[in-house]
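Ticket #4471: structure export looks truncated?
Reporter: QA, pipeline team
Priority: medium

Steps to reproduce: submit the single chain below to the structure queue and open the exported record.
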Amino acid sequence: MIELKHVTFQYESAPEHVYSVRNINLTVQRGECVVLCGRSGCGKTTITRLINGLIPHYYEGKLSGHVSVNGAEIKNQQLSKISQYVGSVFQNPRSQFFNVDTTSELAFGCENQGLPKGDVLERIEEAANRFSLSGLLNRSIFELSGGEKQRIACASVYAVHPDIFVLDEPSSNLDPASILQLKDVLLKLKSEGKTLVISEHRLYYLLDIVDRFVWLDQGEIRSVYTREEILSFSPLQISAMGLRALDLNQVDLRTQPNRQKYSGHEFAFQNLDCKVSGHSVLHIESLRIPAGEIVAVIGHNGAGKSTLAGCLCGIRKHTGKIVYDKTERSNKKRLKESYMVMQDVNHQLFTESVRDEVMLNISEEQTEQAESILKQMGIAELANCHPLTLSGGQKQRVAIASALCAGKKILIYDEPTSGLDYESMRCACALIREVSRQAELSLVITHDLEFIMACCTCVLHIDHGTVKAFYPLDSRGKARVKEEFLLHKESEEEL
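Actual output as written to the record:
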């Protein structure tokens, strides 16, 4: 059993009187699945850190109240002891890797427990089968996509066989098929009597698993709902709470039609080929994209989406040409003209404050514009905070704000809505659409159907490194992309 009594916590680096959570009272019974939901920065991640012992053993600050797991106070136990019965999957999977290859990573937790070699190998095979990782074994961690890293992180925790699983945004970088695999694993864990505490923005895939939704707002628990209670809410009520859609079939009800742009200019990709370790991971014979578009790049994890983005902005070596209006643009020129919001935004946060980060690429004359974007992204009150002290969703908003202020011709967003609640996603949509009017091309790598419907103007579907389809998001295109996302759900229901 997990019990939090009158828990209040303030991170050491937080401004005075700014608490991450306040007066939290929560009990999770053995074998129960509890989902923590709410707007970005509401305290979900902090609660997961309280349960797995990272607070107070790693993250320092002012802690009051009591946190106990299985009757033992967390603060009185060592992290090595806690990790034997509480397994954690972090929002950023890269932060929990200890090895450079995938198979060693799956073995790491088991080896730390001193299990016999035969047992370790058996658990590696079990985890690989459960998460369909046969094609990812014995691979370099650095060659994996964000979604593939997420699957390795989940499998490495699964291999340890803890009694309690704490997962922070486990679906954030996963494609629809991988989300269903994750759902299958969670269902199996629950059937085995495991306790699940999940912090999530995507709620639709958890409806068959969850016992209670704990809705947080500004660091406090506002309400606790059963599955039946939350399903009784209308889509408008759900979005007013800052939550994502409970049913992807209802996404169209919360979006407005997009208008296709026709500028007369275009980007052309000719015989583009990119290799990793001697193997071709991206090959595009011919592709033309009209300038001014906001392109949703979709496809399974590892399909080549981020590779395409890297080629476009000039940071990936490739053969072939990228042409704009019949004039080839070199890697060096595209690198100068591009700005990318990376999948792991921690790689691009450099300054001591949010305000400095957003203003890093602009002149003093544009200060007013930067302040306006900070307000629109809902992070103006965090302007003096260090970016690395923020929640995952808040960091994502800082990175997006920086991109919007950069004034570049080519804007690339790699999973920009991971960690964003509904309201933050809508704000990001509005700003990206506004800035796209001055950009030549906006490329968005995403598995977020709500975002695609609300923001993008066309879809580029990448499959195994090649172009499967490219089409505008008119009424027919919206139906087509929605079918792509719902196809996996329907297949699951037929089983």
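Status: closed, not a bug. The export was complete when the record was re-opened. Leaving a note from the reviewer for reference: The chain has a mean pLDDT of 89.
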